[in-house]
């Protein structure tokens, strides 16, 4: 009961938010390009992660399962989680190259071979999850260490490294802009415009840092707590496991939503629909008040 009490509202929120962004991309034809197709693949993986979220806490509970039950409770959620992670790295890498090397951006292999890029982010997770599900009874700890320290942690560190590099490049470009502005103005003191730019950059760094910490730290805590209990070979409370797993996976699934909801192009169709509904409701309320008078 505790699993569904926590996961159903969280899962529903993740699914609905992803649907809003997916419909926003599908509605706007100007967004029908390769970068947004990658982001669309990430949103589909994130939505599927939201669908399987109620099953993820069950993966840590020891009990006997049939093959079909194991497929639903272990292999399928693990596949979607890894596919989500691979898609997230791909989206960050694609946008990272756009900023770091814009001249060669359109010549990237992922742009020239989009179907191949989709296979790269979907097929390896499927093969690994199936392999893990079939062989975990023989080598249970080895596959856990391989997934955590060979796939998940390097992916998170790669995303953090690319994000930090982008912020560093942005800082250098901001310094160049301020230097050119001072040379034009022929002043040694920072102007109000420079101070506003520096303040905006500081806010951006703080927002990115807090978002990264809020989205990834709970999952890292959950992951290493699981490893610690695995090494010590001690049983832990099912309630603790359920809360940590739901918090960790749920916070990680918010990352694409933050990227999508921050883009007004993705949310503009939903905003227009809500605005029309609000205007219609106000019109009906005004008409009913006039009739009552």
TrEMBL record:
InterPro entries given in the database record: GPCR_Rhodpsn (IPR000276), GPCR_Rhodpsn_7TM (IPR017452), TAAR (IPR050569)
Compartment(s): Cell membrane
Annotated ranges, domain G-protein coupled receptors family 1 profile: 17-259
One Pfam assignment: 7tm_1
Major localization listed first in the record, in broad terms: membrane
TM segment ranges: 6-25, 37-59, 71-93, 114-131, 143-168, 204-230, 242-262
Membrane topology recorded in Swiss-Prot or TrEMBL: Multi-pass membrane protein
Organism superkingdom: Eukaryota
Keywords: Cell membrane, G-protein coupled receptor, Membrane, Receptor, Transducer, Transmembrane, Transmembrane helix
Gene Ontology cellular component annotations, sorted alphabetically: plasma membrane
Keyword set includes Transcription: no
Molecular-function GO term, any one: G protein-coupled receptor activity
Signal peptide stretch: none
PANTHER family (UniProt xref): HISTAMINE RECEPTOR-RELATED G-PROTEIN COUPLED RECEPTOR
Protein name in the entry: G protein-coupled bile acid receptor 1
Organism: Seriola lalandi dorsalis
